[in-house]
Amino acid sequence: MNLEPVADPDQNNTENQTPPSAVGHHIFREEALQHYVHNEQRVELPASFSRASFIYLWILSLVLVIFGLVIAFWPLIRQW
């Protein structure tokens, strides 16, 4: 029976270790990375919609849903 400790394969493998000089460095330029993050977070409405028209359409759809629910449940509402 062999009682010698088994060597960890990751300890002897130096190919996967990052050299100390490369720690903290990015592949991309800092400006390009900031530009990408800034563009990724931006949400824009189509040019045909303004903020006011977007809110108006949401309110209109909410009123239509409420109106549809009232019509759908009108027999139950009328019994009260």
Low-confidence stretches: none
Going by helix content, strand content and strand pairing, the class is mainly alpha
Count of DSSP H/I helices: 4
User: In one word, what is the shape?
Assistant: elongated
What level of helicity do the residues show?
Answer: 40-55%
> How many DSSP E strands?
0
Distance between the termini: 87 Å
The percent range for strand residues is under 5%
Topology:
Layout: H1 9-12, H2 30-41, H3 51-72, H4 74-78
Describe the structure.
The protein is an all-alpha fold and 80 residues long. It has a domain at 49-80. The protein has 4 helices and no strands. It has helices spanning 9-12, 30-41, 51-72, 74-78. The longest helix is centred in the last third of the chain and has 22 residues, at 51-72. The N and C termini lie far apart (87 Å). The relative contact order is 0.05. The mean pLDDT is 75.
Short descriptors:
80 residues; mainly alpha; 54% helix
In short:
The chain has four helices and no strands.
